[in-house]
Amino acid sequence: MHGHAIEPFPRGPLLAAGVLIAATIAVAAWSRHTGDGRVALPPVETIASIDVAFADRADGGVEVTAAADGRVLHVYEPGTNGFVRGVMRGLARERRLAGIGAGPPFRLALGADGRLTLSDTATGRVISLEAFGPDNVGAFVEILNHREVRQ
C-alpha cells in the first residue's frame, strides 16, 4: 500500500470555471436572440441581376437557365467548375432540409459597389461571392453576362 493520500481538486477554481462557462453560454444565447454584435453589410443598389435555375444534366454537366424564359445561359461540363457545383449543392441541401423543391429561382445580382451575390429566393440565404476570389467570381460573372452556351 502506498503512503500517498489523494487530495480533492480545490472547489474555488472549479466553481469559477463553471460560472465562466455558464456566463459564456448566456451571453452567446442573448446575442443570438437580440442580434447584438451581428455584423452585416449595408444594403447596396442592384445594378444588374438575373433569376436563374440550375439543373444536373444526364451527362453529369450542370445547365444554367434564365428563370424568366428558360433560355440556356451556360453549361458546365462534367468535372469542371467545382466552385459553382459546390455552391449550388450547398443551397440545394438547405432547400431539401426546409422541404423546398427546385422550383423557386436563385438571383444573381451585381451591386453598385461591385459586390456579386447569389440569393436563394426561397430560403433568403445570400452568398457574397467575391469572398471566394476572382476566379470563382468569374464563373458567376459569365452567367450574369448571358454568355453563349459553352459546350
TrEMBL record:
UniProt KW keywords: Membrane, Transmembrane, Transmembrane helix
Transmembrane regions listed in the UniProt entry: 12-30
The keyword Transmembrane helix is assigned to this record: yes
Protein name listed in UniProt: Putative photosynthetic complex assembly protein
